[in-house]
Design a protein that fits this description.
mainly alpha, two-stranded antiparallel sheet
């Protein structure tokens, strides 16, 4: 007699969804900057990385595209992380920092499934 198996409909875990969001967010930030450092004094195209302006530990800002900036390895390590206040001043005209500060204190729960779909749509528009 053949065994029958129940089909289990499993949703992806929140951790898996967050990882997917991270990857798509990174790709959008890099594509939007044409894969070059966005700092006016640099514009390098070598080893460009996506950087969170305000820390990625904040769920409200983690995948917000306004909270991302493309930086070359040197600017990312030697400027953005070591001289945070100078970095924030340098990009103040490039991003709406007031919006980011306001959103950082948002207490709304994050729907990562919805966020993933929004990021996918945004990536499709860029491609």
């Amino acid at each position: 007699m053949a065994k029958t198996y129940r089909k289990i409909n499993r949703k992806k875990s929140v951790r898996t969804i967050m990882d997917e969001c991270d990857d798509i967010w990174r790709e959008i930030v890099l594509q939007s900057a044409n894969r070059q450092c966005e700092l006016k004094f640099c514009n390098s195209k070598d080893q460009v990385e996506a950087h969170h302006i305000y820390e990625r530990t904040n769920p409200a800002l983690r995948h917000d595209l306004e909270n991302g900036i493309a930086l070359c390895y040197n600017c990312h390590r030697n400027f953005a992380h070591r001289h945070k206040q100078d970095f924030i001043r340098a990009i103040s005209g490039m991003r709406d920092l007031l919006y980011l500060r306001y959103k950082a204190f948002s207490k709304e729960p994050v729907d990562y499934y919805k966020r993933l779909e929004e990021l996918k749509k945004c990536l499709e528009k860029l491609s």
